[in-house]
Amino acid sequence: MPRILGVDIPREKKIEFALAYLYGIGKSNSKEILAEAQVDLHKRAKDLTEKEISAITLVIQKNTKVEGDLRREVQMNIKRLMDIRCYRGTRHLKGLPVRGQRSRTNARTRKGPRKSVGGLNKKPPSPK
Length: 128
Hints:
CATH architecture of the largest domain: Orthogonal Bundle
CATH class of the largest domain: Mainly Alpha
CATH topology of the largest domain: Helicase, Ruva Protein, domain 3
Strand content: under 5%
Largest sheet: 2 strands, antiparallel
Mean pLDDT: 91
Strand order of the largest sheet: 1-2
Radius of gyration: 24 Å
Helix content: 40-55%
Shape: elongated
Number of strands: 2
Order of helices and strands: EEHHHHHH
Distance between the termini: 80 Å
Structural class: mainly alpha
């Protein structure tokens, strides 16, 4: 399994799609990286030479923020929003959808599983 920046990429996939296993690299970014590193898009990850792997790694390090650095930056941005108590920050704090989605129904991914409220029976009238 080839390793690029500490991440094992799948051997059997084409390198164009295997690079998307790195956090911060998608399909279009992957194509740009491979073009700059002069590596064939249709090559399988297992067929890459050490020279090609090092060329890809060099291009990624030079141009793109990926993995730990990018995750840290995203978390710091969220933390800043929460610290200044803006609307988006308070939504993050409460664990609710941040980007304007409805939350009366749905939003289960963000809110977690339903918490059922026990059967609340009406209190019978007290005898006089």
